[in-house]
Design a protein that fits this description.
Elements: H1 7-12, H2 14-38, H3 43-53, H4 58-69, H5 75-89, H6 92-105
């Protein structure tokens, strides 16, 4: 599904893509950590979960395509959403390292 991502468009709008990607990652990580905390999970594991689950996934493309196909959003908006998801995939190794550090500090 992600093969339709326009890499030239990422390059043309690099600042916007990076800013939105960072914002998405932070928002998802914070929400995930807060939900985990609300369920009684300690801060260390909650932050760990937030860091590990903050990235987008291939399912992002499925949701964007379905929303576009159902007329809930325009194709251009769905395409731009995909542009924001792709760089987030590359953050998984760094997020795993940071999560391991946080988990180690909480023990």
């Amino acid at each position: 599904v992600g093969m339709s991502v326009d890499l030239d468009l990422i390059g043309a709008r690099l600042g916007t893509v990076v800013g939105l990607t960072v914002g998405l990652l932070l928002a998802k990580a914070i929400v995930t950590a807060l939900v985990a905390r609300s369920q009684g999970i300690a801060w260390g594991p909650a932050i760990n979960a937030g860091l590990l689950l903050g990235q987008g996934s291939e399912f992002t493309f499925v949701l964007l395509g379905a929303a576009s196909g159902a007329g809930l959003m325009g194709r251009a908006l769905a395409d731009h959403g995909g542009l924001v998801a792709v760089p987030g995939f590359r953050t998984t190794p760094q997020a795993r390292r940071k999560a391991a550090q946080v988990q180690g500090e909480s023990r």
